[in-house]
């Protein structure tokens, strides 16, 4: 039972801690509401769980055999984060919701697969909580992580929606979008040059 508690604690800590996916989730929650942010949250959760499962099956070996692979993931991930930062920072500061402007399922999935934080969390988690040659520990860890990741990332949409009370005007919304886009761009640039 204690290994399950440890797995859950790790999954919650990694899922709810600030990062690019959670910044976009919070921004979307504020701009578009919780309901319209769910596809992004679902995509991010499924993308992460697929990554976790692939690493559990042996994809982590790629980073050892081909160290440039992890560097390439970092560059592609940072470029995608810069693209998302641009979309956030230059989003219209309108209070009315426009159809199709919120990040969707595929953006969430792709962002988490390309997110270096997700790779590090997956490699660390698989190393700590699964037994090589025992698929049951990997399935358990992935199942727990899936549920907890959805809740943890989804909580950021709720936080964003609650921030709507503080951000009442289009000017405030525009400033919030610029702030969040700039923050995400800073994370991407840090990853590029770290």
TrEMBL record:
This is Lysine transporter LysE. It is found in: Cell membrane. The chain crosses the membrane at residues 39-60, 72-90, 138-160, 172-193. One of its GO terms (molecular function) is amino acid transmembrane transporter activity. Keywords: Cell membrane, Membrane, Transmembrane, Transmembrane helix. It is a multi-pass membrane protein. The lineage of its organism: Bacteria, Pseudomonadati, Pseudomonadota, Alphaproteobacteria, Rhodospirillales. One of its GO terms (biological process) is cysteine export across plasma membrane. The keyword Transmembrane helix applies. One of its GO terms (cellular component) is plasma membrane. The keyword Membrane applies. InterPro entries: LeuE-type.
